[in-house]
Amino acid sequence: MDFLNAIVLMANFVIVPALTYGSQLALGAIGVTLIYGVLRFANFAYGDLMAFGTMISILITWKFQSMGISFGFLPTALLALPFAIIATILVSLFFDKVIFEYYRIKKSPGVTLIVVSLGLMFVLNGIVRVVIGTGDRQFFDGQKFLIKANEFKELTGLNEGLAIKSTQLITLVTTIFVALLLFWFLDKTKTGKSMRAYSNNEDLALLSGIDPNRVVMITWIIASILATVAGTLYGLDKSFKPFTYFNNLLPIFAAAIVGGIGNPIGAFFGGFLVAFSEIMITYAYKKVLIYLLPENLEPTSLMQLLSTDYKFAVSFSILVIVLLFRPNGIFRGKVL
Q: Which CATH number fits the domain that encloses residue 93?
């Protein structure tokens, strides 16, 4: 019985949250790695692009709710998501046309594009803060439970309860579906193969008749879709605050680099690796060990390696270790 209580406790506070958080990081990391693989620069504005897409989702969700439009048991944000995706795509293509295209034509080095993306990051962050404010914002109908902790206790007779929100299941299912669809697109379609060819050898791809402008446009479209979906899922699961998405840029880049920068499949698994590492290292295991150990060996301290305040230090440490000992990542990088 004690063993089952320990398992449920771990599932409730480690496994389920890590799967949800990992799904959100995975989509963001795939977007970052696509931009790097095709456009050849690290886009530091990506976190704020996620924030912009999420902001549009929230605003449209609020509008739908004020009109009495809902999606039944499912969050209304899912109805707003297509509109937010379109808005984010248009913003990405606009900034590519007026900013990035100029440096691309000049064949500027990647570091120049990184600096430009930093400037764009502040612009997008400012737009989001002005439009929706700096405080926490909620979707209002996202917090619905598939099973509540008290219900689980009554059903199983265990001391520990397991709570699963609908948004957590939606996040995991959506991430798997979107990732599989993207991998199929890159591997099986003519456009996807063109993107891979352009990423591997730009000059040879141009000689083969591949239109670089079309490849760039498709890349921004896919990256914008991933940013909006990842950001909206994160906002549904937790809450929306512009600065949070800026903070998430570190674990997203860590996931992309751990998986092998330029490798979408690696970025997918890197997201889950970073999420599980952050949560497992900052979780306090005292109660779990009380269930598992004899009474005379029960711990008195929290048995926590790091405080949750240092969660991002875990991502930073993973990033440093990978760059030092395996710069190409767990999977080989630059293999879009």
A: 1.10.3470
- Contact by Cβ (8 Å): 238, 50: no
In a domain, 333, yes or no: no
Domain count within the chain:
1
Sequence-ordered list of residues with C-beta below 8 angstroms from that of 299, at least 6 positions apart, any chain: 285, 286, 289, 290, 293
User: DSSP per residue over 89-153, as a string?
Assistant: HHHHHHHIIIIIHHHHHTT--HHHHHHHHHHHHHHHHHHHHHHH-SS-B--SS---EEE-HHHHH
Phi/psi region, residue 69 (left: phi>0; alpha: psi -120 to 50; beta: rest), is: beta
Q: Please give the model's pTM, rounded to 2 decimal places.
A: 0.92
Is there a contact between 133 and 117 (Cβ–Cβ < 8 Å)?
A: no
Give CA–CA dist 74/58, Å, rounded: 15
**Under 8 Å between Cβ of 327 and 261:** no
| 74 strand-pairing partners | 71
pLDDT digits (tens, 9 = 90+) for 52-111: 999 999 999 999 999 988 887 788 999 999 999 999 999 999 999 999 999 998 988 888
Backbone angles phi, psi at 183, to 5 degrees: -65, -40
Q: State the residue range of the domain holding 248.
A: 2-325
